[in-house]
TrEMBL record:
Pfam families: Band_7. This is Band 7 domain-containing protein. Residues 5-165 form the Band domain. Positive regulator of hypersensitive response (HR)-like cell death. May be involved in potassium ion channel regulation. The keyword Lipoprotein applies. SUPFAM superfamilies: Band 7/SPFH domain (SSF117892). InterPro entries: Band7/mec-2_domain, Band_7, Band_7/SPFH_dom_sf. Keywords: Lipoprotein, Myristate.
Length: 290
């Protein structure tokens, strides 16, 4: 109907290419335009100015001979000021862009190892964008953004990479566990050493208290009972302690069977052994002093 009244409508974000007798005439902006068809003017086609996206999947190999699929996402649009170039110079824009992406990726990725390819995705994307911008600007297209959205190695390679990562983490965990066990053992040994030291101090103080008590008992008994010697008092104290010990053994319900010699002669033998031990200790101390 518009052609009958020599009018044509161009939608927003779109331009129309007008020809006269098959030759490019002008670019029509969005809106309503007069198109006198009777003098040979017609619409050759429309060109969208919207941002478009092309996803390109390219198979290549890395420097360490691992085949990967690189997925690049190209965002581009036609320039309104160069709409005639974008319309006439390229017959298949998407195929042209895809060819340049293949060329750049297959020239860049084989220079990198697999790990470096993952780390340098931005560098690969920048190389693709620079090459496309330089090539496509001559055809009236602008490259807005280029992204390397994925690098997919073979399934066996991914499984091997995961196993390497898992083994490394297990090694770190084993080292941490060993360090923790080492710290526990050191702390336990330090605690046992401190406990033994304190126990030794307690035993030493206990024996010192016993010696002091025995000395006071001997001195007090000798003063209050004339005619007794220190030996008599010591024998009596030993006998008293001997019977106290027997009483404690008999009163303990958890005590095991204990066989010890019993009788006045046994007490006398114990007293003799203690006295001989004290005399030998005094003789050794005197010899050391001289």
């Amino acid at each position: 109907m518009g052609n009958l009244f020599c009018c044509v409508q161009v939608d927003q974000s779109t331009v129309a290419i007008r020809e006269q007798f098959g030759k490019f005439d002008s670019v029509l902006e969005p809106g309503c335009h007069c198109l006198p068809w009777f003098i040979g003017k017609r619409i050759a086609g429309h060109l969208t100015l919207r941002l478009q996206q092309l996803d390109v999947r390219c198979e290549t190999k890395t420097k360490d001979n691992v085949f990967v699929n690189v997925v690049a996402s190209i965002q581009y649009r036609a320039l309104a000021g160069k709409a005639n170039d974008a319309f006439y110079k390229l017959s298949n824009t998407r195929s042209q862009i895809q060819a340049y992406v293949f060329d750049v990726i297959r020239a860049s990725v084989p220079k990198l190892n697999l790990d470096d390819a993952f780390e340098q995705k931005n560098d690969i994307a920048k190389a693709v964008e620079d090459e496309l911008e330089k090539a496509m600007s001559a055809y009236g297209f602008e490259i807005v953004q280029t992204l390397i959205v994925d690098i997919e190695p073979d399934e066996h390679v991914k499984r091997a990479m995961n196993e390497i990562n898992a083994a490394a983490r297990l090694r770190v965990a084993a080292n941490e566990k060993a360090e923790a066990e080492k710290i526990v053992q050191i702390k336990r040994a330090e605690g046992e050493a401190e406990a033994k030291y304190l126990s030794g101090l307690g035993i030493a103080r206990q024996r010192q208290a016993i010696v002091d008590g025995l000395r006071d008992s001997v001195l007090g008994f000798s003063v209050n009972v004339p005619g007794t010697t220190a030996k008599d008092v010591m024998d009596m104290v030993l006998i008293t302690q001997y019977f106290d010990t027997m009483k404690e053994i008999g009163a303990s319900s958890k005590a095991s069977s204990v066989f010890i010699p019993h009788g006045p002669g046994a007490v006398r033998d114990i007293a003799t052994q203690i006295r001989d031990g004290l005399l030998q200790g005094q003789s050794a101390a005197a010899a050391t002093t001289h």
